[in-house]
Amino acid sequence: MSAPSPSSTPPLVRLHEVRRRFLLGETAVDALAGISFTINSGEFLAVWGPSGSGKSTLMNVLGLIDTPSSGEVWFDGQDTRGLADDALTDFRGRRIGFVFQSFNLVPVLSALENVMLPLQIQGVPERQARGRAAAALDEVGLERFHGSRPDRLSGGQRQRVAIARALAIEPRLVIADEPTANLDSDNAAMVVALMRRLNHDKGVTFVFTTHDPRLLDQVDRRIHLRDGCIESDEHSA
Ligand SMILES: Nc1ncnc2c1ncn2[C@@H]1O[C@H](COP(=O)(O)OP(=O)(O)OP(=O)(O)O)[C@@H](O)[C@H]1O
């Protein structure tokens, strides 16, 4: 049997007319006002826009943490509306890695133990989890810091641990919400360059949000959000 042609491969993620409405007393706020787009496997995509434009809400919806008020989110060809809570948690845990602005590392655990955590939650045996976590830390250049607790690491190193933790599960998609917001400009550029290299060399698909227009030079595609709408969706030449 021949391999499917690229055109028959479904996008990794497809959003169709996604609306996320929050109620503030009597007032309804559409954080996402009915947006549609697709993400293909292997993309390196930034979502940017002013504060309140809907970036975090979009990351939560893409990451299957939040459910739209209306519209469809398809992931890996699966309509996620059909998944019950437990199935959704499992689906997310196996396919999506998360990187957060505030790193979200467990302070009493070493870098290695932090990276092992999502694997152990998935039931990966300890020996195997240790090996995969060590490889992920090596991949982000932290060979010498496996045993370090987060408080012994710089901000840039902590974010690299968080990226290793996201990668360890071998996700289909890594979602990073403002991964550089707590870093100085050198470390911010380094973290984006690291994500870029992992995208390029390993084919990891990244979507991240940023306020920093300087980081947009390094992406293949940028979606500009304003008031919950897509103002532009540009691909680099
Ligand atoms: N849980 C919530 N309850 C009520 N309103 C919310 C909630 N989450 C977000 N909103 C509103 O939705 C809109 C979009 O918020 P969101 O956090 O997605 O924007 P953002 O672009 O990520 O902003 P920032 O850059 O400041 O993080 C805002 O008007 C916000 O007040």
TrEMBL record:
SUPFAM superfamilies: P-loop containing nucleoside triphosphate hydrolases. Gene3D superfamilies: P-loop containing nucleotide triphosphate hydrolases. InterPro entries: AAA+_ATPase (IPR003593), ABC_transporter-like_ATP-bd (IPR003439), ABC_transporter-like_CS (IPR017871), ABC_transpr_LolD-like (IPR015854), MacB-like_ATP-bd (IPR017911), P-loop_NTPase (IPR027417). Keywords: Antibiotic resistance, ATP-binding, Cell membrane, Membrane, Nucleotide-binding, Transmembrane, Transmembrane helix, Transport. GO terms for biological process: response to antibiotic. Signal peptide: none annotated. It holds the Pfam family ABC_tran. One of its GO terms (cellular component) is membrane protein complex. It comes from the Bacteria. Residues 13-237 form the ABC transporter domain. GO terms for molecular function: ATP binding; ATP hydrolysis activity; transmembrane transporter activity. Belongs to the ABC transporter superfamily. Macrolide exporter (TC 3.A.1.122) family. This is Putative ABC transport system ATP-binding protein. It comes from Azoarcus indigens.
